[in-house]
Amino acid sequence: MGAVGMGLVDCHCHLSASDFDSDLDDVLEKAKKANVMALVAVAEHSGEFEKIMQLSERYSGFILPCLGVHPVQELSPEDQRSVTLKDLDLALPIIEKYKDQLLAIGEIGLDFSPRFANTDKQKEEQRQVLITQVQLAKRLNLPLNVHSRSAGRPTISLLQEQEAETCETVAFNFHLLRNRFTCARTRKTGTE
Ligand SMILES: [Zn+2]
Q1: Which ranges does the record mark as transmembrane (predicted)?
Q2: In angstroms, what is the span from residue 106 Cα to ligand 1's centroid?
Q3: d(CA 135, CA 128)
Q4: Pairwise CA distance, residues 52 & 181, whole Å
Q5: What's the CA-to-centroid distance between 3 and ligand 1, angstroms?
Q6: 180 has a pLDDT exceeding 50
Q7: What is d(CA 137, CA 1) in angstroms, rounded to the nearest whole number?
Q8: Is the dihedral of CA 110, 95, 74, 53 positive or negative?
Q9: How do residues 85-130 score in pLDDT, each as one tens digit?
Q10: Is residue 111 exposed (0-12), middle (13-18) or buried (19+ Cβ within 10 Å)?
Q11: Which of 97, 138, 151, 183 is most buried (CB neighbours < 10 A)?
Q12: How many Å lie between the centroid of ligand 1 and the Cα of residue 172?
């Protein structure tokens, strides 16, 4: 591998959020001036997948796309709920469609915050959604971009059971994971 240019990579941001609709160009310009070389844009639900892919095409090589189904589905600020397998059904065909353009599968993980998942059924459904996406990532040879909240040990156990360490894992929001997995993959960034 040759010399790598100096710069920062934001390994997890939600650029498809409507908060950025009015000033995304400004935000990206400021990021460039602050020596940010690339931004990894993650998804929460299938409804934003196309937007993320469009952004990654418009800012090719600067916005790097991840698609995945988050354990908490925020359909609006007032409507947040634990993920279901039905959410995954909607997402999987779109992930397959764009598989060759993705940097990683994410944002995926477990969120056992009581306000989202307070029943065993909800937690189990989150696990099933995560397992399916870990297996998908392994099949596609893509790394993971992982979320965990109030579910540290269950997340680590699940990733280990699924042998997710064979994927290089980008862990977010979670100190224990950061110590256990590598977050060093810069696939398709053109900076290697
Ligand atoms: Zn996130």
Answers
A1: none
A2: 9
A3: 11
A4: 26
A5: 30
A6: no
A7: 25
A8: positive
A9: 999 999 999 999 999 999 999 999 999 999 999 999 999 999 999 9
A10: buried
A11: 151
A12: 7
Q: Out of 46-55, 79-88, 178-187, which region has the weakest mean confidence (pLDDT)? A: 178-187
- Taking the centre of ligand 1 as the mean of its atom positions, its distance from the CA of residue 43, in whole angstroms, is 8
Instruction: Give the amino acid at 158.
Output: L
**Residue bearing tokens 């959604």:** 129
Please choose, from the candidates 179, 31, 12, 27, the residue with its C-alpha nearest in 3D space to the C-alpha of residue 104: 12
* 118-145 average pLDDT score: 95
Q: Using CA atoms, how far apart are residues 79 and 100, in angstroms rounded to an integer?
A: 32
The pTM assigned to this predicted structure is 0.84
Output the CA 146–ligand 1 centroid distance in Å: 8
Residues whose CB falls within 8 Å of the CB of residue 131, separated by 6 or more in sequence, listed in order: 158, 162
Residue 102: closest CA among 52, 162, 147, 148: 52
Strands, DSSP E only, in the chain? 8-13, 36-41, 63-67, 72-76, 79-82, 104-111, 144-149, 169-172
- Name the region of 96 (left: φ>0; alpha: ψ -120 to 50; beta: rest): alpha
